[in-house]
TrEMBL record:
SUPFAM superfamilies: HD-domain/PDEase-like. This is Uncharacterized protein. It comes from Zooshikella harenae. The lineage of its organism: Bacteria, Pseudomonadati, Pseudomonadota, Gammaproteobacteria, Oceanospirillales.
Length: 122
């Protein structure tokens, strides 16, 4: 079964040595989370723009929705839960570009992160 070691594979994918998670997924699963996201969006009958965006994401894409997604992933510590990592290596590589695109300073983001953690009890 192809997904038997899913968590182990994702721990390796979130390791700092992996630059492109989608390519890593392609190697192991012959698909990636962008393609799965597209089909989920279509099945849920979400707006076509949302479904289409999920198919072409790359880590240096400067689209508002993608930047917002990357901020949310970092704030909720997806790198710990799914990735089994103590450091969000993808965030560290892309933080400056994401914050610049969203017009946020480090302090602005820290305030947003703290406020979100307080509101969600994280």
């Amino acid at each position: 079964m192809i997904f038997i070691n899913l968590l182990t594979i994702y721990h390796e994918a979130y390791d700092e040595s992996v630059d492109d998670i989608t390519e890593f997924e392609e190697t192991h699963f012959q698909t990636n989370h962008c393609i799965v996201g597209y089909y989920v969006a279509k099945a849920w009958q979400l707006n076509n723009d949302i479904a289409d965006k999920s198919t072409y994401f790359k880590s240096n894409d400067q689209d508002d929705l993608i930047c917002l997604l990357k901020m949310a992933e970092h704030i909720c510590k997806l790198y710990e839960g799914i990735g089994g990592q103590t450091t969000d290596h993808e965030w560290e590589r892309n933080k400056a570009m994401i914050l610049a695109h969203m017009g946020l300073s480090d302090l602005d983001f820290d305030d947003l992160q703290e406020s979100t953690h307080d509101q969600l009890g994280l």
